[in-house]
Amino acid sequence: MGQRQGSRPVYFLKISIALYLFFACLLPGLSLRAQEAKSLLWKISGNHLQAPSYLLGTMHLVCGEDFEISPKLKTVLKKVHTVTFEADIAAMDGTSQLMDLMKPVPGILEKTPPAQRRALDSLLKAYQLTPDVLNYMSPFGVTSVLTLKSFNCSDASEVKMMEKELYNWAQDDSLQIDHLESVDFQIQVIRSMNTIDELLSTLKGMKDAPHFIKDLVQVYKTEDLPRLTSLMSDPSFMSTVQQTRLLKERNDNWTQLLPGKMKKSATLFAVGAGHLGGPNGLIRLLKEKGYAVTPVFD
Length: 298
What we know:
The chain is of the alpha/beta class. It has one domain. The chain is 47% helix and 12% strand. A six-stranded mixed beta sheet has the order 6-4-7-2-1-8, with helices on both faces.
């Protein structure tokens, strides 16, 4: 399977965006639903669709040794004509806006109240850093570097972006590629949260990140959606405002787009696993629109 090779800075930035969306999509508190079977691949049918489409919950980043395209996903890829991702993956190559996200935010330290600066200094000491690091990169950049380290991969250079691997696979199979959001939109979402408050919130939970990610990967590999939802139920990982902005509002937007895309072409929608379950998840929202949404086990 062929892969396009980009520059290391662009690759790192794509990893960084995936890291942000990883936490946005996999760390929210969501309530369990009986409808959530042990599968991260779901079939969407009915409602006058000529052919079924599919919904895949991804883990945006994973160590190379944990990455796999399952046999059932390979089967589904032979049934669809289009693979649709959250963002326009092709447009991420060489985007100057990605570089800008890593750059320091002008005047951010000067505008930080003394109490916050002391808290920041205390939290960063655990990583042999000081608040001065924000003179060299943005809060988003700091979060990305520390989060990537939390994965504890045996070979950090082999970290996989699941969507990019699926993108390459789909291209090799001559499938159409589509997206739900522009890169500009996702960058604006990240930029709006590129703040000291967000950095402090992330740092407070970072000490537990390696253990959490290890558990999350194992649960993801078993496709236990109810357990995954339960594991993600700690509200300290994401505020109510973040859940609304990053999950609920985006899911509502996507459910307006999915019917037209499914009517046009049998499609595999590959989105973060955190978008699937719960009262505001895509599974429930699609059912409310009259679709039959059923788990794919093999």
